Fold:
Amino acid sequence: MQYRRARRKFDDEPENHERWLISYADFITLLFAFFVVMYAISAVNIGKYKVFSDALGNAFGGQGSATPVNTQVQNLPIPNPGLKRRTELLRKEKEQMTKLAQDLLSTMAPLVKEGKVRVTQNSRGVSVEINASVLFDPGDARLMPASVEALRAVASLLAVDTHDVQVEGHTDNQPIANPRYPSNWELSSVRASSVVRLFIDAGVAPGRLTAVGYSANQPVADNATAEGRARNRRVAVTILSGIPDPGRELPTQ
Structure:
């Protein structure tokens, strides 16, 4: 009699379809750790560095005891003696020029009130603009006796100052032609020179003075009107700043 050995049946082990989650979780963990490290490198400060160091130490079975490294860059001021000195000189220069402008305003107050003199302060320095009708007869460059006193008052302030002074003659656009002044170029230049000669006689050092004639090339008003032409006929006395500063013009009147 043959015995047939009974075949043992084993149930097939079911396939685990969730195994990939383990690898995926490991990848996500490593990716998270990578971004944490990158963030810590890009924005390190003492607090974050200490927390991160302790976390890594604990994760690898040890006490987080890494010594904090100060990676912060301190914004310490860089000393610049040259810049500091120039700033101080500029401040003193502005104070000196402002005081000079105020003194000139006070000296020329009656003419300023009449609108025949303007005092302005700008990046070039202090300018005293005097209407030509106060100084000269029409078409002439000889100072009128009544103007001498006012100019000597200005010269008394300039004599005790140290800045260079530029005297500018300006005319309107009406042509002039006579034996003494063939054009407005000669008239404007001689008018500026007349004021310079008076300043020298009043005690202003000649080396500080310059006379310039601009003819009708720098108008400050419209030459189409009589009022504009009268405004353009002027002499401007400019006390030049020793330390020019590019700032906007500041009228002092």
